[in-house]
């Protein structure tokens, strides 16, 4: 957000098309000519229903698409000005080591089950950044603490299966922030958690990203989850971006019928009395009034 006009944005995606194989002779165009920008320090939400192409877009930016030779990526993904479409694996490794951290929905697929948590956090600290030995151990505890884990010394000594789902998700946050990345891509980071734990983990992600000044790409099927945490929202449907705008504008003056429908689904959830972390009391009141007006 604060980048000078002539500086390349942190992430600039233009005309991105991703085709993935779905069977021996079949494929799906998961992403269709998507344009997307994330500036330094900016928080961007990507919303849309299951299968709309959010995850494939996020994974494209992290260089984490399936490795099959039948995967086709066209268009442009520039990270800090560097073109990454067609870049060699080593260039992507470097981007993930130092620029982009990713938090997934299911921590167990990401965490190494046979390695203590502390070591997994330590391994994501760039070499030389926090020193060695006890300085590095102190840094690991600091990152775990920043991710909202109390008694970090004890957590560091545990294996992933010895932690609750919410704690594991916080470990992923610690691993992501230990790189001090320019961008964190959080893909449905709390969908697998129950509502109260969800709220606390989102809050931690929110404050951690703010403290570090890191850009955030928050992917969710739930508009309510991204409402309070982002500056701008992209709404995806059928592999395309159907609406993009400032979060306030998308929430209050949605232009696309699909966004309007997504907002209605938020409304019905709140009408059912389900507490959603990211709906402000003001928006909740307004949505309730609109629902009454519309009925
Ligand atoms: N590894 C894969 N191989 C083949 N097809 C895939 C793969 N991953 C995703 N797809 C397909 O690509 C399309 C977009 O999927 P994507 O996961 O990006 O959607 P999404 O909006 O993130 O939904 P969800 O929240 O369910 O992940 C879908 O048709 C999906 O079936």
UniProtKB/TrEMBL annotation:
Q: Mention any one GO cellular component term assigned to this protein in its UniProt record.
A: plasma membrane
Primary localisation category: membrane
Keywords, in A-Z order: ATP-binding, Cell membrane, Membrane, Nucleotide-binding, Transport
The entry's localization annotation reads: Cell membrane
Q: Which InterPro entries match?
A: AAA+_ATPase (IPR003593), ABC_Ni/Peptide_Import (IPR050388), ABC_transporter-like_ATP-bd (IPR003439), ABC_transporter-like_CS (IPR017871), Oligopep_ABC_C (IPR013563), P-loop_NTPase (IPR027417)
Q: Which GO terms describe its molecular function?
A: ATP binding; ATP hydrolysis activity
Q: Which GO terms describe its biological process?
A: peptide transport
A Pfam family that this protein carries is: ABC_tran
Q: What's the protein's topology in the membrane?
A: Peripheral membrane protein
Would you say which domain of life the source belongs to? Bacteria
Q: Which SUPFAM superfamilies match?
A: P-loop containing nucleoside triphosphate hydrolases
Domain ABC transporter per the UniProt entry, residue ranges: 11-263
Family to which this protein belongs: Belongs to the ABC transporter superfamily.
- Protein name, UniProt field: Oligopeptide transport ATP-binding protein OppD
> What gene name is listed for this protein?
oppD
